[in-house]
Fold:
Amino acid sequence: MTCLYEDQIAFLASGQLLPDEAESLKQHVSACVECQAEWDFWKELAGEVVAEDAALLQPVGIDTRALAVIHGKSAEWNPFWRGLALLKAQAYLVRRELWPATAGIMALGVIMVILSKQAEFLTFLAPLVAAASLAAIYGPQNDPACELAASTPTSPWKVLLARLTLVSGYNLLLALASSLVLLLVFPADILGGLILSWLGPLTLLSALALMLSLWIGTGNAITISYALWIVQYIQPPQMIKDPPALKLWEEFLTGYRQFWQTPGLLFLLAALIILGALLSTRRSEQYLSPYSG
Structure:
């Protein structure tokens, strides 16, 4: 019969056992014929590996050549190629389900617009889709490898900026493609107005969702962003019966809707919020970096 300890001999020979375990197993080996034979085999094999390793000669000048290649590549790698490489690397780390899910929802939205003949539905949907996707691109909740990423030379703000560029560009292309598809059923002269109707809100709402996700989590960020966007569609008579309060609510809604229809202001606020989001990554750099003490 095979000894129960025989499978552990290889770990003993490679030094992978704890001192107490190794000492106990050595005592057993000295009294067990089967284990003694196994031990002799692994000792001989280990000796051959060490001998072969010692016989290998380091190629002359390999260190110099390696350094020359490394420094030469760094010199040729201009900021454009470094940025492109960063985008390519981060594309694999964004949630895979985000890409088809976003495209699928936008496709359903286009179908709903075609069936209902209401182009405004795209204006309503596009910012919501963008906000949800931007809220799920960064942070421990969305990136299982965030601690590993924080230990690399790439700063967290660069990682966030790369993912922001990828996902925002993807959302923008989807919304533009959806608008172009609607030309099949709507006059071409509405295209410009249709794009402007969702472009500003999409930019601001997605930036806000990203910023909030860094501070209060993805779910809360999506909930708040959706609430801020949907409140403008609430009809006051369904909520308020008192005439003065009703008038006040109507004036608020008028101003609030006008705010979402001011692209210049929305773009400016979005830029400031994105800047704040990039600066917020210093918090994650401080808490996750192994060099932060």
